Amino acid sequence: GLNTNFEGPMFDDVTSEIERYLTGEHLEEAKIIGHSMGGEMAMALSTRKHVAQEIMVVDAMPFYPLYFGKQYADAMSTQTATIFSNIIKSQNDEAYRASQVLSIAKLVKSPQHRQQVLDWSVGSNRAAIAQGLYDLMTIDLRPQLAQNHAKITLLYAYDAQMGMSQEIVDALYETGYANIPNVTKTRIDGSLHFIMFDRPQEFEAAVRQFLEH
What we know:
alpha/beta; 11 helices; four-stranded parallel sheet; globular; 213 residues; Rossmann fold
C-alpha cells in the first residue's frame, strides 16, 4: 500500500549503498547482474570505475523513456515524470491493483508468474514505486556510459505479444545503446520482460556463460 513516510530520491541512494557494500566486503571484482531497474543500477555502478566492471543487464535501457522511442526520450521532462509518479500515488488500492493487472499481462506470459509479480507489486511500498518510476524517467546514463570501460552483456526480450516486429525491438536497443562501447547484445525470443520466468532455461544458460567467462 501507499506509505507516505517514504521520501525520494531512491535510485542514486540505492546504487551508492550497493557500491558501499561491494567495497566494504572487498567485492570490487564481483560480476553484477541486474534486471529492469536493477539493470540500470548495474550500469550506474559500472560508471564508478572501481566496481562492477563486468555486468549483465537484463531487459533494461540506459534511459527508460527510450522504450517509447528516441523522440519521446528527447522530449522527456521532470514535469512529465512527476505526472506519471503522481498517478501511482493518487490511486486507491483497487485502482492500483487493476492497473497492475493490465501492466503485468504485458510483462509476463504465464498466469502463475503474473500472479507472483502482482503480489510483489501490490505488497510493495507504493510511494517507493512512484519515486522509482520518477527516477527511471529522469536519469539518463548515456552521457556517462559514452566512455564506458566495463564489459556489458545485454539480454533483451522479444515476443510477438509485444505488438511490435522483431526488427523494431532490435532497433530500439540498437538506438538505446548507440555510442556505448563494450556492449554485447543477445535477444531472447518467446519472452516478455521477465525473461527468467518466460524462458528460464535460456536465461540460466546465459547467466552461466556470463559468470564462467
